Amino acid sequence: MVSIQQFSECITCHAWSPDQTMVAFCPNNTEVHIYKTVAEKWEKVHILQKHDQIISSIDWSIKTNRIVTASHDRNSYVWNLKMSEWVPSLVILRLNRAALCVKWSPEENKFAVGSGAKTVCVCYYEQENDWWISKLIRKKHNSSVTSIAWHPENILLATTSTDGKCRVFSTFIKGVDTRDSRTGAGSRFGEQIMQLDLSHTWTFGVKWSPCGDTLAYTGQDSMIYFVGDIGVSPTAQSLAFRHLPLRDVLFVSEKMLIGVGFDCEPMVFAADGSGTWSFISLLEKKTAPSGSKYGSQFTGAFGKFYGQSKHGSSNDLIEPAKPRGGAHENCITCIIPIKKEGETWTGRFSTSGLDGKIVTWELENYIDILR
């Protein structure tokens, strides 16, 4: 099931409120627009104005209802809702290049900012001065940090960069993190746990699986990389596909991943029983036919992948032809899950892109197949 909403001519990033009634996005300028559903219609309720250049990333915390923004103006702000107004808090980043990506940690006691200064800022709140201060991970990247992802345990942070590498760091901060939350793989802030040299091009869109056992990221050469058993005996797989490169990815489950990018259509990847990942199909925007339990081109390809083809004659994966009239009409730059605090995620996620649309996808039926 797909819900499509045209908000602007172009959207660089978006995020949902904790109760999913509001969405915040940047219409490719210096502002954040917040829309709310009123009587099944979207109405603009807030405009956040503080940055001087294009906002590159937004994240809306589920537990604390805070919005954090990052911009090409080298600044970041944490926005708190006070008396129906969003008030910005100062963040000390100490960057001399653009802030490119930002993400709250799972515990929301800190957030990380990747930058064009080859630096990652890990920020935490200092109550005495009423500001957010940063500790820097420096001299580890050889080029711009394009994306970041927090491990579910709140300590490890994965990054991708235009130097073609993916790295994993410890972000343990004394006085902010508890010793109980410290992972076994490294405890010193900024310690590099792992460096992955699987790609020879720019890398983007790093994500951890829900349990944190698998790490995935993409390359500009239409490749996607999966690293499993991290912390034990890591295994890596490089997967090429014939479509245009991806910009971002999202794990739907431990065995299923959605990738989005220049092809304007979400791509479905899945792992078989041995843990080998393969491309399944492009994700259709239409709902499954009422006469079939799962229907659609996606299920046909999935059946072939697991040897459950209707004809029962082959286990070979046949790539379907690219469907016409997709939900997006330009590059998809952002994909995020949609869920409330404490609830079990049922596969709802949204995408936004350079066509100015925010598209909501429903995948609950497909998740049941993969569990």
From TrEMBL:
PROSITE patterns: WD_REPEATS_1, WD_REPEATS_2, WD_REPEATS_REGION
GO terms under cellular component: Arp2/3 protein complex
Domain of life: Eukaryota
Subcellular location: Cytoplasm, Cytoskeleton
GO BP annotation list: Arp2/3 complex-mediated actin nucleation
Record keywords: Actin-binding, Cytoplasm, Cytoskeleton, Repeat, WD repeat
Entry-linked SUPFAM superfamilies: WD40 repeat-like
Main location: cytoplasm
Per-repeat ranges for WD: 48-89, 138-170
The keyword NAD is assigned to this record: no
Biological role stated in the UniProt entry: Functions as component of the Arp2/3 complex which is involved in regulation of actin polymerization and together with an activating nucleation-promoting factor (NPF) mediates the formation of branched actin networks. Functions as a component of the Arp2/3 complex which is involved in regulation of actin polymerization and together with an activating nucleation-promoting factor (NPF) mediates the formation of branched actin networks. Arp2/3 complex plays a critical role in the control of cell morphogenesis via the modulation of cell polarity development.
Assembly description: Component of the Arp2/3 complex composed of ARP2, ARP3, ARPC1/p41-ARC, ARPC2/p34-ARC, ARPC3/p21-ARC, ARPC4/p20-ARC and ARPC5/p16-ARC.
Name of the protein: Actin-related protein 2/3 complex subunit
